[in-house]
Design goal:
The chain is an alpha/beta fold and 376 residues long. It folds into 2 domains: 234 residues, Type I PLP-dependent aspartate aminotransferase-like (Major domain) (Aspartate Aminotransferase, domain 2); 122 residues, Aspartate Aminotransferase, domain 1 (Alpha-Beta Complex), CATH 3.90.1150.10. A 7-stranded mixed β-sheet has the order 1-9-8-5-4-2-3, with helices on both faces. The protein has a 3-stranded antiparallel β-sheet with strand order 12-13-14. α1 crosses α8 and α3 crosses α7. The longest helix has 22 residues. The protein is globular. It starts with 8 loop residues before the first helix and ends with a helix.
Length: 376
């Protein structure tokens, strides 16, 4: 049996090595390293795959969120609502730009932003909501869009963990994660479902005017070369990363199917276990399983991780500390106990290996090891 990894990028690369190597060498031979044909080709492929009018490539997922907020014209002091249970980047860019991060609790089953909590958090200063499509499935976007419409707010989708997932609206229509709100953002960090071999990100929108502004912001605020009408940033997806992504995009649905197969194996092993709660599926979204995350109960989670480590089975905690309890984001508005669902999840969740290369032998080892712990 091959060594089990949380993410097995090496085995994935070996399966597509000839195509990846050729794509990279074509960029090197062309010497078009910045904004070359590979970037344009990937952008067009991603637009087609997502069914969105505009994809604006950028340097990473954090930049994608920052550029989106800058292009929307949100001002210092304005409030932006987001989930308390997420990676720090979501709140980081809000604070960095001088906006006021407002965090809300999450649904205990899907782990995604809770619409009722969002409604309660809205004030006259609120300008935007950032729903995070956590672990691979979409937040309740029917509710998010309804709330945004009622209060004239922007929706900035953080789809960094859910690219390729479909959202199914109440009327049966479908849209890809990141293409529903005013603007969507994703990361191409290597461990993501669609990952490059370095850093990368992209922004999506169907709004022509917003797309123009996004392209200005990512390119130093230039409308015409050397004429800077806006404050911008330097955020580009380089051509080598775009070439890698173009190859892997063609397999994204195949990768999602492999992840779902692994998730089904886990489900069957842990379903109805008294100490483990398997991930809930939100009926309005497909799931692409960026992570497979269990909620433990009556369990010493650290002891479980230590046991698995001895079995050479990796496990991770996403995320151990709520945003409102992070030292850099302490706020007198919030205290421990204000977000019971998030705080409970941070104390009880554990994520198992999840990637495209898991085989039945590895999955059996992982599940048998977890179950063995509870028999001790």
């Amino acid at each position: 049996m091959n060594k089990i990894a949380m993410v097995d990028l090496k085995s994935q690369y070996e399966k597509i090595k000839p195509e990846i190597d050729q794509a990279i060498h074509e960029v090197i031979n062309s010497t078009a390293f910045i904004n070359g044909p590979a970037v344009k080709g990937f952008q067009e492929d991603l637009e087609k795959y997502l069914g969105v009018k505009h994809v604006i490539p950028c340097a990473n997922g954090t930049d994608a969120l920052q550029v989106a907020m800058m292009a929307l014209g949100i001002q210092p002091g304005d409030e932006v609502i987001t989930t308390n249970f997420t990676f720090i980047a979501t709140a980081e860019v809000i604070a960095l730009l001088g906006y006021t991060p407002v965090v809300v609790d999450v649904d205990p089953d899907t782990f995604n932003i809770d619409p009722d909590s969002v409604r309660r958090a809205i004030t006259p200063k609120t300008k935007a909501i950032v729903p995070v499509h956590l672990f691979g499935q979409c937040a309740d976007m029917d509710a998010m869009m309804e709330i945004a419409g009622e209060h004239n707010l922007f929706i900035i989708e953080d789809a960094c963990q859910a690219i390729g997932a479909d959202y199914i609206f109440a009327d049966g229509t479908r849209k890809k994660a990141g293409t529903i709100g005013h603007v969507g953002c994703t990361s191409f960090f290597p461990s993501k479902n669609l990952g490059c071999y370095g850093d990368g990100g992209a922004i999506f929108t169907n709004d022509d005017e917003l797309a123009k502004q996004l392209r200005v912001v990512v390119n130093h605020g230039m409308t015409v070369r050397y004429y800077h009408d806006f404050i911008g940033v330097n955020s580009r997806l380089d051509s080598i990363q775009a070439a890698v992504l173009k190859v892997k995009l063609a397999r994204l649905d195949e990768y999602a199917a492999a992840r779902n197969k692994a998730a089904e194996y886990y489900d069957n092993a842990f379903r109805n276990h008294p100490n483990l709660k398997i991930p809930a599926r939100f009926g309005r979204s497909t799931h692409v399983f960026h992570q497979y995350t269990l909620v433990t109960s009556d369990t010493d989670r650290n002891a479980l991780i230590e046991f698995l480590t001895k079995k050479e089975v990796p496990a991770m905690i996403y995320y151990p500390v709520p945003l409102h309890m992070q030292k850099a984001y302490l706020d007198p508005r919030y205290k421990e106990g204000d977000f019971p669902v998030t705080e409970h999840l941070c104390k009880t969740v554990i994520s198992l290996p999840m990637h495209t290369e898991l085989d039945d032998e590895q999955l059996a080892c992982i599940t048998d090891s977890v179950l063995e712990f509870f028999k001790i």
